[in-house]
Amino acid sequence: MTEFKRILCPIDFSDASRHALDQAIAIAGWYESHVTALHVIGPVFNFEPPILFAERSNLKQLAVDTGQLARLDEWLTAATAARVPSEAHVREGETAESVLAFARSLPADLIVMGTHGRSGFERLVLGSVTEKVLRNATCPVLTVPPRAATTAQLPFRRVLCPVDFSEPSLLALRTAFSIAEEADARLIVLNVVDWPGGDSVLVTASGDRELLGQVERQVAHRLESLITDESKMWSRPEARVTTGKPYREIPAAAVDMAADLVVIGVHGRNTLGLALFGSTTNQVVRRASCPVLTIRAAQ
Q1: For residues 144 and 279, what is the distance between their CA atoms, to the nearest angstrom?
Q2: What's the pLDDT tens digit per position in 185-228?
């Protein structure tokens, strides 16, 4: 059984982070867990004479920290109303690094973050803070699209889990089974066969779609073998196979089933992984209209 007992929610006081906090509080309610809200203040460059005005500078920073902490406490009234234990913290430093360091120190079982905007440049780069946290977090990360962009509802009723039979995707599937059980949700286990295009020599030589059909049946059998009788007792899993590019087909499947959550595995954090961040996972996070839970295999 997956348990998220310590949930960290970075807050920048935008509507996107308020929406993410709503999700964090709801999840904490299901798992009877604790929410920590964190606001990071960027480094303060002090151009005043360092000795003469040192005391005044410290007081100024203390006032800023206290004001932000009071603001965080106000945001957490929603957690109090939901009877979810919570606490607020303010840190100074580079945002992504501070979030990652704080997550390790808790240690956090889950980071819940809002994403800003899905058009133009922001959709392309996702946002540097979110991108860095997704690349480097050692715990699962839930990215939540803006309230205006999302089609998801709470509690989760329809969960999509893409599986490519790799270790991270099988770990994600175990998490998806657990979430589906906890939320009494329908679970679609999806594999996308990345098959060459229709003008490919391979497809032509295979006698139209005969070979592809064989591959799809084999994949479907493998998917079905992952759905145990026990999982059928506690959730409503269904195996599906489709053909195309995974980074396109996974978001499309989420839209088709009106998914409330996508659970997806991500691969290691080696140099190449850091550069590409797993092209499929990265594209799914960028394109999704519902929250995406990324699960990383232990390093």
Answers
A1: 19
A2: 899 999 999 877 644 444 444 455 788 888 889 999 999 999 98
| pTM of the full structure | 0.84
Instruction: Supply the range of the domain harboring residue 299.
Output: 151-299
**Locate tokens 């999704």: which residue?**
288
On whether both 111 and 168 belong to a single domain, the answer is: no
Do 141 and 169 belong to one domain? no
Is 3 in the same domain as 133? Answer: yes
